[in-house]
């Protein structure tokens, strides 16, 4: 009766990472008409970036969601073994959370060469003021359905308005679209909330991206789809000038919090500081596979946004 309760995902972590990273870069307009640029660890930093004055760092840890079939409504919970996955099913049935199916992922084990759990690094990053660090996991298990969300979402931006006329990224039309893009809505975003000393923890959630459970110990809360999280970040970027980071000051913060990273003593100019932050992202990814994204702008562009509001 207890056999066959797991539903295997058809996706891979690398595919999810590649698709989400590419999509975020694709929908972020680049050029003189846009006040922002999105740079990730694979993005080439050029001489044109010398005028970047401010950044908003984002750190994403991509996970594959696996599935669990729901328990029969008449099932006696006392008969269920206390294995980690069965505990998730027991917990969600007892609290009457959505579970048809339940999606989940497990925290990653500490790498042999790592001094800390990946989860705790993500938590430490999220604790830095005006930095967003969170897990991203798909709400689909089937590859075809996942890719259909991606392809249908591309049509929303296929008319390339940012190339055809002067338009600002913060306009309501663009931001409102972000909140309803099927591909972004097809992922959950989960912010780490407590430090761990073992990887034997799981997050569980339903296919709408709500009712998130944290297991060992058990509790649940509401959270956000990736579309809402990204929209909130861009909303803050356009409406709050204090949401941005000065690159030099941010370099000092990350150097004080992460002993595996030391800055170049010659990083005195803005362009060099941006390169150093990108190098931190590359080292972070190499050690913990947490991917860094930087939203960048200039003082002039922020001032122009304030005048247009």
How is this fold's topology laid out?
Elements: E1 6-7, H1 13-27, E2 37-40, E3 54-62, E4 66-68, H2 84-94, E5 102-106, H3 118-126, E6 132-138, H4 143-154, H5 161-164, H6 172-178, H7 182-185, E7 187-190, E8 202-205, E9 212-215, E10 219-221, E11 224-225, H8 226-239, H9 247-257, H10 270-288, E12 291-297, H11 299-308
Parallel strand pairs: 3-6
Antiparallel strand pairs: 1-4, 2-12, 3-12, 4-5, 5-8, 6-7, 7-11, 8-9, 9-10
Helix pairs in contact: 9-10
What does this structure look like?
Helix 9 (247-257) runs parallel beside helix 10. This protein is globular. 38% of the residues lie in helices and 17% in strands. With 309 residues, it is of the alpha+beta class. The strands form two sheets. A six-stranded antiparallel sheet has the order 1-4-5-8-9-10, covered by helices on one side. A six-stranded mixed sheet has the order 2-12-3-6-7-11, with helices on both faces. It is built from eleven helices and twelve strands. The protein has one domain (6-41, 55-245). Mean pLDDT is 83; it is low at 158-172. It has helices spanning 13-27, 84-94, 118-126, 143-154, 161-164, 172-178, 182-185, 226-239, 247-257, 270-288, 299-308; strands spanning 6-7, 37-40, 54-62, 66-68, 102-106, 132-138, 187-190, 202-205, 212-215, 219-221, 224-225, 291-297. The chain starts with 5 loop residues before the first strand and ends with a helix. A hairpin with a 3-residue loop joins strand 9 (212-215) and strand 10 (219-221).
